[in-house]
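Troubleshooting log. The previous run stalled partway through. Resubmitting the same two chains, unchanged.
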Amino acid sequence: MALLDFFRQNKKSNSAAVARERLQILVAHDRGRNGPSYLPQLQRELLKVIRKYVEVDEDAVNVHLENEGNQEILELNIVLPER
Amino acid sequence: MARIIVVTSGKGGVGKTTTSAAFAMGLAERGHRTVVIDFDVGLRNLDLVMGCERRVVFDFVNVIQGEAKLAQALIRDKRNPNLFVLAASQTRDKEALTAEGVGKVLEELSESFDYIVCDSPAGIEKGATLAMYFADDAIVVTNPEVSSVRDSDRMIGILSSKSRRAEEGLEPIREYLLVTRYSPERVDKGEMLSLEDVQEILALNLIGVVPESQAVLNASNAGQPVILDKESTAGQAYSDMVDRYLGEDLPHRFTQVEKKGLLGRLFGG
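Second attempt completed without errors. Output:
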């Protein structure tokens, strides 16, 4: 039996590797979603200001925050109407 | 001025109260005047782990609401004259803790203590957010297990945005990772996330590794912080962690499978 156990031990159950992989994906996803709480407010106010000058659609302003290493990049995307 | 340390995790049952009790006792043993506060209003347990449950007359909420003086509510530890406990209230009123009230109590404690250890409740409700709001340092307690690691990551995000230091634009809270219930044997078998895995995901400075140990349950059964059990691996790991917090550079112990000797292997010792 001891000999059999020896061979069985070599067959590693690698649930830890699965856990690591799932966590890496999950954590990256959670972090992306939990941007600063002021983002929606910022988006609304920007839209208001732009609408003072240009007639744009409700969804014309897009605010996105991204982390890259030590840098945070705030990306603004504004779609102007075609003339 | 005292330094305020929050012991937090997000997930319940990972060892926040065990850690708060051990850490506070360790600081007191090294000669620092220390107070440990239970922020788990409604479900207090720190008093049990500290072994002073029968001496609670007034609690944290009584002090905040002006029903008792701070000096009346502080329970002096019978083993160490440097250590005091401030128990949580058993009230069901979730609004009993206020930022203003907590701030005042911490300010008053700051005048006479070196360290204030805040034992956070699980979750991200008021007790937990207030426990971390005034912190200078945070100890994030994590088990090598998926839900605990995920919750710790959420807490790290909250620590960096919803604290006094973040709001006032001060130097951010110093965050440390403490891995508890670690089993090198299971890591070796590929059944448990390794220290490297957890550290890679959370990217925090590792302040200690507490191995899975029967001494922890024995300690809470008896109301003795496990750091007092000098023979146990958990007690020694907590002791190392306190020394590291105070600036010593110590290698991590109990992170590898102990090699059995030849005799041990032959006789299954």
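Takeaways: The beta strands of chain B are 3-8, 34-38, 75-76, 83-86, 115-119, 137-142, 174-182, 205-211. The mean pLDDT of chain B is 94.
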